[in-house]
Amino acid sequence: MYDIETVRAQFPILSREVNGKPLVYLDNGASAQKPQVVIDAITQSYSHEYANVHRGLHYLSNLATDKYEAVRGKVATFLNAASEDEIVFNSGTTEGINAVAYGWAMPRMEAGDEIILSVMEHHANIVPWHFLRERQGVVIKWVDVDSTGALDPQAVIDAITPKTKLIAITHLSNVLGTKVDVKTITTAAHAKGVAVLVDGSQAAVHMPVDVQDIGCDFYAVTGHKLYGPSGSGAIYIKADRLREMRPFIGGGDMIKEVTKDSVIYNDPPMILEAGTPGIVQTIGLGVALDFMMGLGMDNIAAYENKLRDYAVSKLSGLNWIQVQGTTPDKGAIFSFTMDGAAHAHDISTILDKKGVAVRAGQHCTGPLMEYMGLPATCRASMGLYNTEAEVDVLIDALELAHDLFA
């Protein structure tokens, strides 16, 4: 039984007011709020248990190391990885994708080799590949979505040529809410010898993820969207790909021995984790994953799908609102524009006066905005603690904005 009031009670920020109105937080696509258990874990770590991890022989170092390393297994369980040794800690998806770009793709790709992207990728899954385009002559191939925002997996598969080395694709669009059939893409790509990286930043928070079932080579997640701390994250790297990775950041932890003339590197996954890590952030991420898995990812998905359907029914009654992304099985993410001269920033400001927090802008998806012919959109992105009553507040605030610009 998914008791929304019990869930909401665990997030202290949801009880506050903004501009004299109860907070309606609909900016989860940018970053999610934190449950009390995560806040408590962070406080406990800094107040009573903090020390650097690995190699320390004293009590606090061993305690911190045990708690930190335990998170590797939690991430593996959350993603259903075959082994916790396939989980590399980092600061978030951006660092994870860059690790693949520098550590796997750069040593293997030369001028003329191809990377396939969809037009709806986040900049974090675009810019690292532009680095390879600029520096090594790698070719980026783009696959468009249709008028509903759907991405045909066959269109991605058809874009593969003998020069294709990697497909880097989102699992769930942060603007359109579109779910991508990454399993079908991966199966076909592997049959042609092409690796697949999946950006799971948005998907992993909204639905169960099984990387073994998907079959992908890389799957990146970011902690601050998973109700955990900012500066935390992880990337799943399939064992055989992990052995192919070249370290791209050097320092402590990723080495076994250093002399004046040589370096002996550590074993995976440590070889990709240089320097003092985000110890407390990672511990907090583990607690956030425990929280989500305790609720049940199937339960979260079912609840959010119900919330999505309610929001669709309400927004469809506003004939002066255009929602971008209308696939039936989309995530509970709604990017929209309003008829008339109202700019997304103006709409967002008016909503904020009613206590409604949404995002306005390009959402780090410049190619998608260009493809849709839009300078910006407003985005209401929902999470496991949002309610139908909050959707009603959003609708009322939008009607006010429309009246002001009419």
UniProtKB/TrEMBL annotation:
Ligase recorded as keyword: no
Native species: Sulfitobacter noctilucicola
Start and end residues of each Aminotransferase class V domain: 24-394
Tree of life domain: Bacteria
Molecular functions per Gene Ontology: cysteine desulfurase activity; lyase activity; pyridoxal phosphate binding
Function statement: Catalyzes the removal of elemental sulfur and selenium atoms from L-cysteine, L-cystine, L-selenocysteine, and L-selenocystine to produce L-alanine.
Biological process, per Gene Ontology: cysteine metabolic process
Cofactor(s) recorded in Swiss-Prot or TrEMBL: pyridoxal 5'-phosphate
Keyword annotations from UniProtKB, A to Z: Lyase, Pyridoxal phosphate, Transferase
Enzyme class: transferase
Similarity comment: family membership: Belongs to the class-V pyridoxal-phosphate-dependent aminotransferase family. Csd subfamily.
Catalytic activity reported: (sulfur carrier)-H + L-cysteine = (sulfur carrier)-SH + L-alanine
This enzyme's EC code(s): 2.8.1.7
Ranges in coiled-coil conformation: none
Protein name: Cysteine desulfurase
